[in-house]
């Protein structure tokens, strides 16, 4: 069971943009890592863009399961995991991350923020914490 990506995005009016993301591509070949990370960023944006406000969904993309949660305020989270990782745990993680993110990052920053400008460092910690622990279903 493995988590590969955890992203926070904002579903604005024209399109979705990435606010912050964490990746674990250590299981991939060194030369594949950047393209795998690009694929995960693109897929996260696409899934969030196609999901309506206030929705949760799990979408199979190649050998991955992508779990998306789009809140009514436009803040969205996407977890990319393997097929064995429990869906319920992914949505619990997304709830926790989006609640914390919305408390720590001003809503004004959601509109124009980018991974370089948003100050929120907890994603890497969450990704490794949920990676190491064996989740319970």
UniProtKB/TrEMBL annotation:
The keyword Chloroplast is annotated on this UniProt entry: no
One Pfam match: Longin
InterPro entries the record matches: Longin-like_dom_sf, Longin_dom
Keywords for this protein: Lipoprotein, Membrane, Methylation, Palmitate, Prenylation, Protein transport, Transport
Family in the record: Belongs to the synaptobrevin family.
GO MF annotation list: SNAP receptor activity
Gene Ontology terms: cellular component: Golgi apparatus
GO BP, sorted A to Z: endoplasmic reticulum to Golgi vesicle-mediated transport; protein transport
SMART domains reported for this sequence: Longin
Topological relation to the membrane, as annotated: Lipid-anchor
Cell location: Endomembrane system
Keyword Acetylation: no
Bilayer-crossing regions: none
Annotated signal peptide: none
Organism: Pomatorhinus ruficollis
UniProt domain Longin: residue ranges: 8-127
UniProt-recorded name of the protein: YKT6B protein
């Amino acid at each position: 069971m493995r988590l590969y990506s955890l992203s926070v995005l904002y579903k604005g009016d024209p399109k979705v943009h990435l606010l912050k993301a964490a990746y674990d591509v250590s299981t991939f070949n060194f030369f594949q890592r950047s393209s795998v990370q690009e694929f995960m960023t693109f897929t996260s944006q696409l899934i969030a863009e196609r999901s309506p406000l206030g929705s949760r969904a799990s979408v199979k993309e190649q050998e991955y399961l992508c779990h998306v949660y789009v809140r009514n305020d436009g803040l969205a989270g996407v977890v990319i995991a393997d097929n064995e990782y429990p869906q319920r745990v992914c949505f619990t993680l997304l709830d926790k991350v989006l609640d914390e993110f919305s408390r720590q990052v001003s809503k004004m920053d959601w509109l124009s923020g980018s991974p370089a400008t948003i100050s929120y460092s907890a994603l890497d910690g969450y990704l490794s914490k949920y990676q190491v622990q064996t989740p319970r279903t």
